[in-house]
Design a protein that fits this description.
alpha/beta; Aspartate Aminotransferase, domain 2; 7-stranded mixed sheet; 13 helices; globular
Length: 381
Amino acid sequence: MPVPMLDLKRQYAPLHRELLDALGHVLETQQFILGEPVAAFEDAAAHHLGVSHAIGCASGTDALWLALASAGIGPGAAVLTTPFSFFASVSSILRTGAKPLLADIDPATFNLDPTAVQNVLAGPDGNTVKAILPVHLYGQAADMARFAGIAKTRNLKLIEDAAQAFGAAYGRVAAGGLGDIAAFSFYPTKNLSAAGDAGMVTTNSAELAERARMLRQHGMRRRYHHDEIGWNARMDGFQAAILMVKLKYIDEWNQARHTIARRYHALFHAAGLAEAGPYPDKGIVLPHEVPGSKHVWHQYVIRTRRRDALRDFLTERKIGSEIFYPVPLHLQEALKGLGYSEGSFPEAERAAREVLALPIFPELRKDEQETVVAALADFLS
C-alpha cells in the first residue's frame, strides 16, 4: 500500500467551503496586500501564541531577515547559529551584511548545542557576536533557558528560527515568545500552512515590532517616505485568509501529530527496532520529546546507519520519506566563503548521513503507519 510523505488533499477536503468563502471575501473587499485580512490574522496569531505583536510577511525567509534586521544586526556583526538547518537560517544572516558563525548540534535533539555555542563565544570571533539564532528543528524548541542565560550574560540578542515550530513550547512559553524576536514560515508543508509562501515575525517588543513593519514595506513609516532601505516583504490577503481559517484547527492538528508520533514509538518498540541512541547501531534511533517542552512533530526523524539504502527500499515500496538535511550548511558550495571544512562540525555531519523523516501529517492513518514500520522491519531484517 503506498504511503505518501504528505497529503494536503486530506486536510483541504473538509475545509473546502470555508476556504473558498475566505478567499471570496478578499476578492470582494479587494484587500490583496496587507489590509484587514492580514491585520486580522496577525491579531489572532499573536493571541494564539501569547505574544504582544505579530507581523505578517511574504515568506519564512523574509521573516528571518526582518527579525535580524529589526534587532539591529548588520555589517560588522556576527550571528551564531547551527550548521544543521535549512539554507535560509544562514542566508538571511548574510542578507543583513552580518557574518554567520556556526556551532555544532546536540546529537539527541538535532538542535543547536549551548555548550558548543559557549565554546565559540570563548574563541577569537566571540567578541563580534551580536546575536544567537537557535532553530527549533523538526518542531521541538531548542534549549532556550540556557541560550537566554548566555544571551543575558553577554548582552546578545536572542532570535528564534521558529519556521517549523508553530505551537511548540519550552516550559509554558510558546515558540515565538522565547527570545527577543522570532520568525515563522507558513510554507505549504508546515504544520500551519498557507497555499503558497508566507511568513510571520513575532515579538513582545513594541520597538522591534514597529521596525519590522517599517522594513517590510520598503522602509516606509509614511507612504512614499523611506526612512531606511527595507524590502517588499508584505503578506498578501489571500494567504492571510487561508491562514485565518487554518489557525482554528492548528491545536487539533498538532495534537494529532503528537498521537501519530506516540503510535510510531509504540510500533517500533513492539517490532524490536528501536535503539537507545543517540547513535544507531543495527536498528533505528527514534526522536524524542524533551521533558518540559512541547514538540509539535513537524517531522518524525529517525537515525539509521544505512539511511540511503533504506530510503531507496522505501521508495521501491512507494512509501514516502525525506532527508532533512543531507548536506550541512558549512559544506554547501554557496557557503564555502564561511571558511569551514569537513570535520568542522562532526555531530551535524553525522546527522546528515543518518537522518530520515518518515510520513507524518494529521490525517495519516494507523494502517499506513503499520505499513511504514513493517517495511522498516523487512529492511532491517
